[in-house]
């Protein structure tokens, strides 16, 4: 069974939806704060066991997989026919959506990684010398925002794939037309 743009579209969007789901769940499971335990000149923060860090990493991984599938699907030689990449980038709509997909992917990755790494650091480095600490957690809203951007990025990769498919069809029609004209010129001479 040959890989088609429909298969790749489903893969890209499915991975993007999974990144979105894991990011939203990570945001909802994130604790508001830890429990401070005061010692002699230190405060040890005890954080509840929660899946925020694992879910944040999973969301980032699925965003990366969606991006990889989306990027590779644009230049994949469907039915053994490849299109030169400069030809695809001559299509203005494709180029604009490609850049938007790249930008939203980068922003989504940053918004997913930043709170995930911050939350991990808070859990690992839980001893504070400031006796007035409130046992902080990662900034609220970043994981959820990153999840929505991950979904947006997958949809932009999907639109880019559809535009690349249109540009691919136009390219092969132009190449086919040039070959027919060349054959007619040779036969008439």
UniProtKB/TrEMBL annotation:
<comment type="similarity">
    <text>Belongs to the DESIGUAL family.</text>
</comment>
<keyword id="KW-0732">Signal</keyword>
<dbReference type="InterPro" id="IPR009606">
    <property type="entry name" value="DEAL/Modifying_wall_lignin1/2"/>
</dbReference>
<feature type="transmembrane region" description="Helical">
    <location>
        <begin position="88"/>
        <end position="114"/>
    </location>
</feature>
<feature type="transmembrane region" description="Helical">
    <location>
        <begin position="142"/>
        <end position="164"/>
    </location>
</feature>
<dbReference type="InterPro" id="IPR052222">
    <property type="entry name" value="DESIGUAL"/>
</dbReference>
<protein>
    <recommendedName>
        <fullName>Keratin-associated protein</fullName>
    </recommendedName>
</protein>
<dbReference type="Pfam" id="PF06749">
    <property type="entry name" value="DUF1218"/>
</dbReference>
<dbReference type="GO" id="GO:0012505">
    <property type="term" value="C:endomembrane system"/>
</dbReference>
<feature type="transmembrane region" description="Helical">
    <location>
        <begin position="53"/>
        <end position="76"/>
    </location>
</feature>
<keyword id="KW-1133">Transmembrane helix</keyword>
<keyword id="KW-0472">Membrane</keyword>
<feature type="signal peptide">
    <location>
        <begin position="1"/>
        <end position="26"/>
    </location>
</feature>
<keyword id="KW-0812">Transmembrane</keyword>
């Amino acid at each position: 069974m040959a890989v088609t743009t429909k298969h790749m579209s489903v893969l890209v969007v499915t991975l993007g939806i999974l990144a979105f789901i894991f990011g939203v769940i990570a945001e909802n499971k994130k604790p508001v704060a830890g429990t401070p335990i005061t010692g002699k000149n230190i405060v040890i923060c005890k954080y509840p066991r929660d899946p925020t860090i694992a879910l944040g990493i999973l969301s980032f991984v699925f965003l990366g997989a969606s991006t990889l599938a989306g990027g590779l699907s644009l230049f994949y030689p469907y039915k053994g026919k490849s299109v030169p990449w400069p030809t695809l980038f001559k299509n203005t709509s494709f180029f604009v959506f490609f850049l938007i997909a790249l930008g939203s992917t980068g922003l989504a990755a940053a918004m997913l990684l930043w709170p995930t790494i911050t939350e991990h650091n808070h859990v690992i480095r839980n001893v504070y010398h400031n006796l007035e600490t409130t046992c902080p957690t990662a900034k609220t809203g970043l994981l959820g925002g990153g999840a929505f951007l991950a979904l947006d990025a997958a949809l932009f990769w999907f639109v880019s794939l559809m535009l690349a498919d249109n540009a691919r069809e136009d390219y092969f029609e132009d190449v086919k037309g040039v070959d027919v004209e060349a054959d007619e010129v040779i036969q008439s001479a």
